[in-house]
Amino acid sequence: MILDDKNTFMNYKIDNLQYCNWSRKIFKINREAGLDAVHVTIVYHEDFDELQKVLNMWNNHFKENSDLIFLGKSYLDIEKAKKDGKTAIFFGFQNCSPVEDDIKLIEKVHEQGCRFMQLTYNNQSLLATGCYEKNDSGVTNFGREAIKEMNRVGIVIDMSHSAEKSTLDAIEISEKPIAITHANPSFWHKAIRNKSEDLLKSLASSGGMLGLSLYPHHLKNGSKCTLDSFCEMTARTAEIIGVKNIGIGSDLCIEHPNSVVEWMRNGTWAKIKKYGEGSKKKSGFPIQPDWFRDARGFKNLQTGLKKIGFKNEEVNDILGNNWYNFYKGIN
Known about the structure:
There is one protein chain. Helix 8 (227-241) crosses helix 10 (298-308). The radius of gyration is 19 Å and the shape is globular. The protein has 11 helices and 11 strands. The protein is α/β, with parallel strands linked by helices. Strand 5, helix 3 and strand 6 (87-93) form a beta-alpha-beta unit. The strands form 3 sheets. Strands 3, 4, 5, 6, 7 and 8 form a 6-stranded parallel sheet that branches. The chain has a single domain, classed as TIM Barrel (Alpha-Beta Barrel), CATH 3.20.20. The protein is 39% helix and 13% strand.
């Protein structure tokens, strides 16, 4: 139960991972969904200089949509968003590329608004091993130092795209709880990026958070995944790691052209093929389940979680209050 300074009961609604083709249309959708905060991916493969261009773009978003959004830096901004009827935007990196090989840049990107950073995106980085690598050597020497510095300045370690040993290392090394902002348990769907039961237990025992993903590649039966199946998985996950360690990290990627997928997967380390070239089956963004086309699907999640047997307070925890408490604990 969350009370404000006037002892009024509060429920927060938070989606702790979106990567959309940002526009006023999407900011309005998030407001229609009642989202008080969204953790947005602003970096995949950009270096520090390229990050500055992204930040300039976001400064324009904030100026042009000040009635809908503002930059969030702490849990207090989630409270402010609720009060003002807006959405607090929290910046996150899905890779460590902006800090390059300079640990001093960790403090700099924090000053510029970064609050979440993955140690790696699928592949080996200077900090850790990604989930698509054949050999998982764990967190590197630079990674250990980076984790200490992230703890110091207040950037959450995110291991959503990391390999298992690297993730367990990060949990052990970090003095603050880490997060897996967007993934699902592998007992439900054995996608490469979904997480083992043992790993999730370690995450929860350390006070970490799991954001359940609505991205079809992470769902049982993909785009045809049913709301009932997703909510059954959520209930089973709560039995294993506790309901207080679960939130939503939808991984929504709406309004992007399919060519963006190839850039996400290949970055600058591989030659990017044209969309569909060299393959009989064209790859692109999968279709969202019909019950979660965009953030307004939070209403369907609320209905489904209640139907599966969660109490009202537990539903509110999963849909936002748990993330709010996590944000409050890291400041």
